[in-house]
Amino acid sequence: MTFKTLASYITRIELLSSRLEITKILAELFSKLSPEEFEKTVYLILGRLTPTYKTVNFQMAEKMVIRAVAKAFQIDKTEFVRRYEVVGDIGEVVHKIKLENKSFLSRDIEIIEVYERLLTMAQLGGPGSQEEKIVHLSSLLQEIDPLSARYVIRIPLGILRLGFSDMTVLDSLSWMKQGDKKLRPILQKAFHVHPDLGLIGKVLKKDGISKVNMIEPALFTPIIMMKAERLSSGTEIIEKIGKCSVEPKFDGFRLQVHKMGDAVRLYTRGLDDVTFMYPDVVEGVRKEVDADEAILEGEAIGYDKKENKFLPFQETVQRKRKHGIAAKALEIPLKLFAFELLYLNGKNYIFEPFTKRREELNNIISSSAKIVDSTVLIANDELVDDPQILESIFEDAIGSGLEGIIAKKLDGIYEPGARGWNWIKFKRSYSSKIEDTIDCVVMGYDYGKGKRAEFGIGAFLVGVYDDKTDKFMTIAKIGTGLTDDEWRHLKSISDKLKCTEKPKNYLVDDIMEVDVWINPEIIVEIKADEITRSTMHTAGRQMKPSKSGSSFQVDVPGYALRFPRLERFRSDKTPGESTNVGELISLHKAQK
What we know:
The chain has 592 residues and is α+β, with helices and mostly antiparallel strands. It contains 21 helices and 24 strands.
């Protein structure tokens, strides 16, 4: 398929807001692609060149891209910037310039060729690479047709955002195969084990759904991490899963460790490869994990050698950095508390019961290792069938400065990407007011007034994700509780994500509209007194047709946070890990 044909599909998608219609158009597109074309196309329409866990960045700022455009079309850079500032969309301006000047000849280029040329450009590095990238992009813009140029120019800038996510792609693959979403559970299960849409679609097109169902863990391909359910007391936990293993809930950042011989890679919950950030953990895994091949999970916590104590999250998170890594590693060494084994020496342990996974974990990590001398330790666990003992362990954990405890079902499997009853989180009491925090996505902000006029921001809108509709829905607008530095930080990171109009996958009431919309990439941990019902917010809202049938009206109000305030920024989490609408509803029920 030519990229020009792909561009025509993208144009159709840009005009739609209905997820179902977008799903059907994607299914139509996917059905016309060869397996090899699908693998490349799915990355391109998601605005990237690889699966999320592989880092291939263009490293091209907007000024570099503008230089490439000016070179390609032999125009004055200042004139292009003027037109760009008026229109606000670099793709639209490039499209118009190429249409206006008939001297720019173009040819039909196959999708795979466009992909390979973009990949070559992204991989250029070293002295002189910036100029080489400008030449490569300029040449590609000269050769492709005007409509293709509109979308190609957005990819190096990371702004080809079409309003759908990985989950919509999985739905589309199901529609492609049999005209409905019934294959989604199988596809999603495979994606959670091996989060590469290109591979999954390629296998589906070549070998069918039965082969997709056989996809297993692979070393150096991160598995989407399992999540825990919540309950409000020891009694509820024992009633739900019976005798269980109870482990401490550490307040650090979760890492998935992949080891093959001396090769070690570390991944976050968001599938980021952070191996280079934590050399002390890498070295500890090499020396202290007794396995040729292993995939395990643990929580990394900062450690104070002098005081012989663990550090709070605010200090531990200082290790998440790109510069000065070695010095910070000496200042704040990490201890990795391993608590799960997913793969060992060629064997998949995901479907093994917890007791078996724990037994094998104990075999490869010394339980007698001392905190002072070791980097990799095994999380303490205790078998409990008495609610009072479970409550006592919880209180001890809180008294020791931990977040709480995790109860694990003894015969429970590991469910990648799922939130189930095999793990139950007991962090604090959920008996009356909401005392747990909510992980929210920042959707946009309003300009500041008064003192905050100097910050350029005075309030920000937050929401949660609804996986049923693939949309972000609002739960609060927050205008208090931040320090001056926090306001400045939020403005700075938000402005890198600004978009010219509200993203299509945002569901926002008119009364909650903001001055500046941003793309959903910033996660904030929010504390609130209570979850209440609200007609102004859309999270959990249910609509019904009006009496005339020409419009919709609120049938069941949405949910909102009462007295919301910022606890901290969660740079270690992704939008997919934010609190979802289902969890919000559960928390609302629990607080009663």
